[in-house]
Amino acid sequence: MNFKGKAISVDVNDNIATLTFDLQGESVNKFNRLTLGELKEVGQLLTQAKDIKGLLVRSNKDSFIVGADITEFGDMFHLPEEEMLAGINAINADFSVFEDLPFPTVTAINGLALGGGLEMALTTDFRVMDSHAKIGFPEVKLGIIPGYGGTVRAPRIIGTDNAVEWIATGKDNKAKAALAAGMVDAVVEADQLDAAAMDLLQKAINGDFDIAAIRKQKTSPLQLDDIENIMAFTTAKALIGQQAGRHYKAPMYAVKTIEKAAKLGRDEAIKVENEAVTKLGKMEITGNMINLFLGDQALTKTAKGYASNNTPVERAAVLGAGIMGGGIAYQSASTGTPIIMKDIAQAGIDMGMGEAAKLLSTKVKRGRLTADKMAATLNKITPTLSYDGIDQADLIVEAVVENPAVKKAVLAEVEGLISDDTILTSNTSTIPITELASALKRPENFCGMHFFNPVHKMPLVEIIRGEKTSDAAIARTVNYALAMKKKPVVVNDCPGFLVNRILFAYFAGFVALVKEGADFVAIDKAAEKFGWPMGPAYLCDVVGIDTGVHAGKVMSDGFPDRMGQTFKTCLEVMLENDRLGEKNSQGFYDYKADKRGKLRKTYNESVKALLAPHVDAPKEFSEEEIMDRLMVPFCLESIRCLEADIVSSATDLDMALIFGVGFPPFKGGAIRFVENMGLAAFVEKADQYKELGPLYHPTDTLRDLAANNGSMFK
């Protein structure tokens, strides 16, 4: 038999069938409706074929199969539960057909075999892997678990412990680890892959292996006695529960699904998996995680669209060293773009180079970088106290003190030393770009490039368009951000831009709560329970109390009706008492380094005494009220930014908050959070706090959308 489809082809030579995945019109193979339909057809043809002795499964693309088409798979989750379950059952039956073919089967894995791609490979008797390939089950990152038999076949091939680790963590695995675990049977160089797979298949055809025994192991219950079963899954649930936390359901679902199916044969075990996938698919968190995945892709596509209109940055410069400048220099150099790091003081240079060296040394200690590569990266950073060589930079990041007068002076000075097409950017966190551009002769070549601290950890970079910023300036800056392996989002100018404008509405809710007698420790606990990586008091300490007070004044001036304060805030009290946060080891909390050098916070009772003269009598607030008081302003300011076209879409806004300030990913972003609640329900909740002022007042547009069952996602 021969078959030629739009995703799959089958050729037969010397009674050996070769099934090739090659999805037309796509750069990668994936399981969309077309591919799954052809897979079903091919499975039926192979089952009925005469004289075929073996099957080789391979790919014509750079990767084997990257998984299911999440846009189509996600649509399935909107079906009625019974219909969704029936659909998944049918797909799994088509996969099992390949496991039951009456002749030996081998898969050649190149590039990536992820999710459904790996599950397809597991249906065959043997797997040969390219030495540079990676395989894994990333489904938990989307809030689901493997749905094409992965929770059934993996533990029967590599054992319970290994399968739990592979599935519940969602990590990719290199060839060496895959071979050691037994997930693949051989690893070869890429140019030998097809030949090695065919050789293994020929040996299987010749009877060198007990195919029946291999298949019996894959289709039978797990070979665990009762004690082994209890020990394996009790330990696994404790470990995965601790790692995943209470907000993410899929990892624990994976463990429990494997456990529930442990004593069942393949077909019954797959039914257990299908039921678990269906239940997860109906959860709000799954929709949020899928939207997060799609939003990330959309953000990257938009950024690449900007970047395609300009040439790459071959040499950069950062003005102002220290921790931030050193972090920017490190990120640029470590991703391949040489950079000049200029400061007015040797102490700043030393601090900046020290920051870069520290980050690289950590990689060396962890075995992720060689000493030679560390030295080569440091050599890409040119520290200097002068402007020598600055005229060679394609793009310059100004990262001096957050003071408009100082920034304007530095920007004007450097503009006189560079070419007419060099792009100037400012790493300001709050000062409007249009205001800073007033000091320049070529404002069209200027935009904001706001990095988040610490630079090496925070994915987001805000690219801020001023009133006179050109498309060329935006394009080159986005290009540079992508080269630095960051996630750029282009926003329009206003005080605080996008992320900090929204964040300081949240802080406004926080300082008002403290003023009314709320305990900041209780506020932090409620926020962390909600899903934030840290509460607002702790976050202020990490950002720096002095930075927070300064930025708060900028935001107060910019939005006095919502963010202006008529009282001395708790942040101002901390600043007056030289409690600056982590930077001087005392803020809302005290900080001390542990054995690994990581700062640990402890509560200091004296802070309450410092605050006492400036706050109302202690008052206990419920966790629900605390979060309402924080999140209503946060979400309303997000909506205002969207309405004012500060950001181009609700998706970009949500992604910026997740990547920029750590908004709980499982909640999907501020706009998704509001839409999941229901616009009418959110407006009703906000109205409960209307006496607190404009910070809590829904916009007219939001009220109209709520009344008409509209959506902020277009």
Automatic annotation (TrEMBL):
One of its GO terms (biological process) is fatty acid beta-oxidation. It catalyses: a (3S)-3-hydroxyacyl-CoA + NAD(+) = a 3-oxoacyl-CoA + NADH + H(+). GO terms for molecular function: 3-hydroxybutyryl-CoA epimerase activity; delta(3)-delta(2)-enoyl-CoA isomerase activity; enoyl-CoA hydratase activity; long-chain (3S)-3-hydroxyacyl-CoA dehydrogenase (NAD+) activity; NAD+ binding. Gene3D superfamilies: 1.10.1040.50, 2-enoyl-CoA Hydratase, Chain A, domain 1, NAD(P)-binding Rossmann-like Domain. Residues 496-591 form the 3-hydroxyacyl-CoA dehydrogenase C-terminal domain. Pfam families: 3HCDH (PF00725), 3HCDH_N (PF02737), ECH_1 (PF00378). SUPFAM superfamilies: 6-phosphogluconate dehydrogenase C-terminal domain-like (SSF48179), ClpP/crotonase (SSF52096), NAD(P)-binding Rossmann-fold domains (SSF51735). Residues 316-494 form the 3-hydroxyacyl-CoA dehydrogenase NAD binding domain. Pathway: Lipid metabolism; fatty acid beta-oxidation. Its EC number is 4.2.1.17. It comes from the Bacteria. Keywords: Fatty acid metabolism, Isomerase, Lipid degradation, Lipid metabolism, Lyase, Multifunctional enzyme, NAD, Oxidoreductase. One of its GO terms (cellular component) is fatty acid beta-oxidation multienzyme complex. It is an enzyme of class 4 (lyase). PANTHER family: TRIFUNCTIONAL ENZYME SUBUNIT ALPHA, TRIFUNCTIONAL ENZYME SUBUNIT ALPHA, MITOCHONDRIAL. In the N-terminal section; belongs to the enoyl-CoA hydratase/isomerase family. This is enoyl-CoA hydratase. It comes from Oceanicoccus sagamiensis.
